[in-house]
Amino acid sequence: MTLTPEAKAHPTPNRRSLESGRNENAIKQPIMDGFNFSEIYAHFCQRITPQKMYLPSATLTMSLFALLSRAAGVPKQTGENPFTYPLGDDLVDGAEIVNLTWKATTKSTITINLLKGDPKNLDDLGAIVGLLDNEGWYEWKVSKYLEDSGSMPKGHMYGLKITNDEDEGFEYSPPFNLRVLKSRFKRISGVKGKVNSTRPPPPERRSNSKKGVEWGG
Asked: What predicted TM-score, i.e. pTM, was given to this entire model?
């Protein structure tokens, strides 16, 4: 049998292709007809327990929190600029200028805070110097308004915290004792652990100088 050019361009489908087409339409037709999104969604929700629904949200929240914490650059103890004086259990004589020393391992300016209390949970009394060029030493003039270690609760000590001003990474000194002769320290009546309001405030952060920004008294 000879096919005309029109027949070659549009061949007659055979029986198998027709049956295949009918089968495909038979499969597709029920999906398209009567498709109800509301019923399917309700059925889906009934099959999921509250734990399964809430778990992804909790996981996502924790992941976002960790990511934001890293992005925010939360200050952390780094081990940089370790103190070489004072060391643990030293008795620092506040009657003289105290030469604080540390191994300078960072290049930016530093801030030194004075700590006090239980060595396991020291309170931060504020900065004794800020924006100091990091050369590994600082001459500290001890304030007369600090408490002598001899009158502090048993086991309480002083400590120092050195902070890198660039990234706020910090390190602690070992706890030490401080002798303050003729101390003017007084506690506020009825308020545990509070000192009088005459203690000088921490320094304001302003332009850097060789000596840094310090307070004393």
From this structure: 0.58
Domain spans of the chain?
A: 36-72, 83-214
User: How many CA atoms does the CB half-sphere of 17 hold within 13 Å?
Assistant: 4
Which two structure tokens, joined as six digits, stand for 193?
């652990």
> Distance between CA atoms of 64 and 5, rounded to whole angstroms?
67
Cα dist from 84 to 2, 55, 99, 173, 186, whole Å: 105, 49, 10, 8, 31
Residue in this structure with the two tokens 């030194």, named with its chain if needed: 112
What tokens appear for 65 in the block? 């929190």
Fold of 83-214: Immunoglobulin-like (2.60.40)
13 Cβ partners below 8 Å, 6+ apart? 21
CA 59 – CA 56 distance, rounded (Å): 5
Query: What token pair was written down for 167?
Result: 């990234």
pLDDT digits (tens, 9 = 90+) for 78-113: 999 999 999 998 999 999 999 999 999 999 999 999
Q: By C-alpha distance, which of 142, 130, 29, 33 is closest to 95?
A: 142
